[in-house]
Amino acid sequence: MDHAAEAHRTDLMTITRHVLNEQSKHPEARGAFTILLNHIVLGCKFVCSAVSKAGLAKLIGLAGETNVQGEEQKKMDVLSNEVFVKALISSGQTSILISEEDEEATFVDPSKRGRYIVVFDPLDGSSNIDCGVSIGTIFGIYMVEHKDDLSLEDVLQPGEKMVAAGYCMYGSSCTLVLSTGNGVNGFTLDPSLGEFILTHPNIKIPKKGKIYSINEGNAKNWDKATAKYVENCKFPKDGSSPKSLRYIGSMVADVHRTLLYGGIFMYPADKKSPNGKLRLLYEVIPMSYLMEQAGGQAFTGKQRALELVPNNIHERSPVFLGSYDDVEEIKKIYAAVEEEST
Ligand code: FDP
């Protein structure tokens, strides 16, 4: 028996243990972040369980629909939002919540306030629920200086100010990917233990990838730089092999593949949607933060995504994110197209 391997297998690094280890590097930390993260993890476990039972429990459908017992059922994204909002408020560590599902920001009651702002999309890729494709929750965390004197200005901060970001993917397994500003780690839910276990330590995205990911159905509306880049992916001029196309249409799943296998994920601006489709605060920024932490890049077509300052909470932004070299190539194409036009 390989005792060393056996000892390793039984020495499980749970997500809580991992965050506590990180916390111990900051003697001034009082555990507030660990408490917050535990509540996010709880939300993820709940949604994971609900998503996996969705067909069975007839949870899918319009809000207000009734199930076989005659009980009113909630649409999965509405349910997920409620779960996260309640978990985050009850953590006692949040002051403002921004959710994709809620038009307005939620300012937490002063008696329950903490030092963190959480921006999140409780169930991203929800158009894929009915056919069982992987979907996920995306979150980003900012810190507030003065929790008693809050305004939306505290939320409208560039991604470089974010202190942590992550996503949980509800797929063939439930995977939580997290960065607290010190690299990226991936945890897989062990359903028998009910714990997220560190399975992907220190994720680094390959420097260059073989996959491009974009909704090609929008090609007729693309700008010149996007069209040129995609043309290069299919017909490389340098004699290299063409890239493969993979597009799930569920951001968490497309970004997760990009992070592990390398390549580029794009949702560009186009003639119909001048700011693209994806939301800056709770989709583009958290995913860009993770990409940079894993050694990749994220670009909006104009600038580094993490430098962009949001003007409103549901603002959209184009994004090109993934392997360092692949994003570098599209940056060069944008610069060349810009120069041609001046
Ligand atoms: P969905 O509409 O299913 O919620 O931002 C939402 C999102 O999915 C992303 O998860 C996904 O990457 C993107 O939209 C897909 O958009 P297209 O259908 O336009 O390709």
Please characterize this protein's 3D structure.
The chain is 32% helix and 20% strand. The protein is globular and about 60 Å long. Strands 2-1-3-4-5-6-7-8 form an 8-stranded mixed β-sheet, sandwiched between helices. It has a 5-stranded mixed β-sheet with strand order 10-9-11-13-12, with helices on both faces. Helix 2 runs antiparallel to helix 3, helix 3 runs antiparallel to helix 5 (76-90) and helix 6 (224-234) crosses helix 9. By secondary structure, the protein is of the alpha+beta class. The protein has helices at residues 3-10, 15-23, 32-52, 54-57, 76-90, 224-234, 251-261, 280-293, 324-340; strands at residues 94-99, 106-107, 116-124, 135-143, 164-170, 174-179, 185-190, 195-200, 211-213, 244-245, 264-267, 297-299, 319-322. The protein is built from 9 helices and 13 strands. The longest helix has 21 residues, at 32-52. The structure holds 2,6-di-O-phosphono-beta-D-fructofuranose. 2,6-di-O-phosphono-beta-D-fructofuranose binds at residues 124-128, 215, 249-251, 254, 277-278, 283.
Summarize the structure.
The protein has helices spanning about 5-10, 15-25, 30-50, 55, 75-90, 225-235, 250-260, 280-295, 325-340; strands spanning about 95-100, 105, 115-125, 135-145, 165-170, 175-180, 185-190, 195-200, 210-215, 245, 265, 295-300, 320. The strands form two sheets. Strands 2-1-3-4-5-6-7-8 form an eight-stranded mixed sheet, sandwiched between helices. Strands 10-9-11-13-12 form a five-stranded mixed sheet, with helices on both faces. It has about 350 residues and is an alpha+beta fold.
